[in-house]
Amino acid sequence: MAGAGLVYGEDALSAAELDWRPKSQLPDSVRNSLPVFCDGGYLPSGAGEEGLAVFAGETGEATPLQASGLNARYEMDQELYLEGDVRLSQGSFQVTGSEARYSQNTGQVSIQGPLVSRGEGFLLTGERAEYSVDSGRFDINTATFLLHGPEMRGRAGSLSRVDDSRVEIRDGMLTTCGPQQNDWAIVASDIELDQTEGFGTAKHVRLEVLDVPVFYWPYASFPIDDRRKSGLLYPQFGSSSAGSGAFLAVPYYLNLAPHYDATITPQYIHGRGLFNEVEGRYLSSLGQSTLQLGYLDHDSAYADDNPGESGQRWALDASTRAEFGGGWNGYGDFSVVSDNDYLSDLNRSLEINQATHLQRKGGVKYQGANQFLDIYLNDYQTVSDDIAQEDRPYAQLPEVVYTGSTRAGWLEAGLESEYSWFYRDNDSLTGLDKANGQRFRARPELALPMRALWGFSRPSVSLDYTRYELDDYTAGDSGFDRTVPVFEWDNGLYFDRQSSLFDVPYNQTFEPRLYYAWADAESDQDYIPAFDTALQSFYFEQLFQPDRFVGGDRVGDANQLTVALTSRFNDLVTGAERARFSVGQVQYFDDREVTLFGDGGGNGSRSALAGEVVLNPLENLQIRSSGLWDPDTGDTEEGRSQLIFHSKDYRYLASVGHTYSKDELEQSDIAAVIPATDRVSLIGRWVYDSDLDRTVGSLAGIEYNNCCWSIQVVHQNYLTSDEELDSRLLFQIQLKGLGGSGGSAASISEAIYGFDEREQRRFGTP
Question: Which residues are CB-contacts of 661 (< 8 A; sequence separation ≥ 6)?
Fold first, then answer.
């Protein structure tokens, strides 16, 4: 048994010290899984041996006591005295010590240390102990313990296993830091662990940092297994120059029932007052629903900036998902805020992103093998003062979408259809902007798909039919329709060859593709309102679409041929695609006359060259580039390039990007996480706008890690809607095994690719 033969005294080893091993002494499998900032880890020295679990059964007078020692003295019916390598066991209770006295009259066993008991994932040491053979109660003085699973160690002035399900600890301390490294610790006067209820309670709890108390709770409860337990969560804090100032939030979790719970987060925001947020979750046999509320009775900063406003501010965000079976699902999302500045001023935990529109959408959908049906209501709240009324989106009350396909021998028949009732408050508008109404669109298609190992061919004909019934329409009859015949023919060939590069075998493909599209659409469609229609962004995949518009209010005229080529390089050892090169261009045989109020037409005979390159030379390195180049002018119309790198353990992260759109935008960004030492990492991102000739975003921070805690401090600048550069200072402190406070990691994850994965691996978690 581990620990037998130790001499108790000042040099006695604690439970953690018994199983702690420097990194150099750990097996390769354990050592390689440790983060670089850990100096060692725990390795059970008594692996495979049975022993005391914190909660154990099969004790009491019905189970005989077994005892052994190097020397023994026995007084008939009175006392048994054991000395030297003493081992006691009764059922699942086992302990070793230097000597023991067993009184048959009282059923009590006195054990002298150093005593050691090892259980499944648990190690316990002490100076002396008392054990009741009849009741199974076990009291140990000057105890130390180690939980191998969470790597949590601690000490106690005394520890008592009252019965098979309850343990009481007095003057206790626990931490996940290594032996003799009390960077932080939780200390309490009384701790009780109740296995039956699945939680523990503690009195007079304080958080100590370097043995200095920094936070105090008079009472706390916490879970000791997977069951949820009501109680305080870790506080959150931060600072911002965007009008919010410093804030401190103390969430409280309510485990109301197995299938529903709530979290209440009162928080004080400097300059604004007391702000409260509530989140409720409900889980049924159909799915989960979530309701989130935010409320501030009087925002003094908002009232000062907006004379005449009460300062009362609120928000609501609700979502639900349900599975009815048989391919049927239900869903709903609803978001609303009291004012347009709420998201930038107050939103901290509501799942509403900073946006110009908040969506309210709910419906049911069916997904079958060859059919899809979606019926929903959809509306928006516009939360930007810069969006004019005529540019705000229409509500769909309702929208019905149905698609289906079937095979009949060599032929394939399909149908895409949609019915929408569009509504917007247009009382202050005129002309087409004032119209509301109904739209029905159907696109039946008949195709002859042919596919072989060496290529494919798919000719198809379809009829794009649209019917309108409009209100407040002044450009003609309120009811009219539009019919556009469409012909498409998509063809591709596959060629491949095998070779090797740097002794790595690979397969190279050569994939030419021809796509022809013809659509006989009327040239003037500007008498039709634009309910949901926009011009598509032009990129490589759009080369193989017949329509240059999205939405149903415009159908583009087409007589065009796309010529494209793709080549792939696949690693034959791993199967990974190491490189892909694609380029293509559209040849126009007629002018494009259909426009969206002037946009989308053209008379050129060919499009810009659209291309993309994807390189994966290593598992952790990717280079992507896509763009449009006009061969007539020699100008680059659009471009996006990005290099993304991460080391295998995600300690190193780097990305470089460039975005360009002619006469509109040119931005460069660079981001990185670079370890300065094994424990210190530098975090940064910089975004520069060449057109504005200024920085439009930056992030700079530092992170410190050791094996039991970490801290991040990040300063962030970001451009607001009024083109001012605001800043905020974010913190995050993480205590291994106990979670953390602050909120810097979420903002870093949005800015730096791979940071989420890095956060999961920081303490060696898979």
Answer: 637, 638
Question: Which stretch, 122-126, 181-185, 471-475, 581-585, has highest mean pLDDT?
Answer: 581-585
> What is the C-alpha to C-alpha distance for residues 555 and 124, in angstroms, rounded to an integer?
76
321's tokens: 């998902």
CB under 8 Å to 38, separation ≥6 — which residues?
23, 178, 706, 707, 764
Give the angle subtended at the CA of 670 by the CAs of 664 and 671, to the nearest 5°: 135
DSSP state letter for 431: G
Query: Rounded to an integer, what distance in angstroms lies between the CA atom of residue 600 and that of residue 548?
Result: 7
Which residue has tokens 């763009």?
627
pTM: 0.76
Q: Which of 150, 115, 147 is nearest to 129 (CA)?
A: 115
At 540, is the secondary structure helix, strand, or coil?
helix
717 closest CA partner among 734, 741, 701:
701
Counting residues of the chain whose pLDDT is more than 90, the rounded percentage is 45
d(CA 494, CA 95): 72
Instruction: Quote the CA–CA distance of 697 and 714 in Å, as a whole number.
Output: 13
- Residue 732: closest CA among 759, 710, 699, 758: 710
Q: What percent of the chain has pLDDT over 70?
A: 88
Phi, psi of 55 (to 5 degrees): -110, 120
Rounded distance, CA 18 to CA 148, Å?
12
What single letter denotes the amino acid at residue 372?
F
Question: Domains in the chain, please, with CATH?
Answer: 15-229 (2.60.450.10)
DSSP states along 194-250: ETTTTEEEEEEEEEEETTEEEEEEEEEEEESSSS---EE---EEEEETTTT--EEE-
Confirm if 639 and 660 have CB atoms less than 8 A apart.
yes
Select the more confidently predicted residue: 150 or 589: 589
The span from the CA of 730 to the CA of 748, in Å, is 10
Instruction: For tokens 């679409």, name the residue.
Output: 545
* Contact in structure between 127 and 142 (CB atoms under 8 Å): yes
| Alpha-carbon span 442 to 470, nearest angstrom | 18
**By the 8 A CB rule, do 200 and 227 touch?**
no
| Residue 610 to residue 541: CA distance in whole angstroms | 9
Phi first, then psi, for residue 15 (nearest 5°) are: -60, -40
Please state the rounded mean pLDDT for residues 131-143: 84
CB count within 10 Å of CB 143 equals 25
Tell me the C-alpha distance between 349 and 246, whole Å: 16
Is there a contact between 327 and 404 (Cβ–Cβ < 8 Å)? no
For residues 191 and 202, the answer to whether their CB atoms sit within 8 Å is: yes
- Give the model's confidence band at 723: pLDDT under 50 very low, under 70 low, under 90 confident, else very high: low
Q: Give the separation between CA 544 and CA 536, rounded to whole angstroms.
A: 13
Write out the H or E segment, with its range, that includes residue 748.
helix 744-751
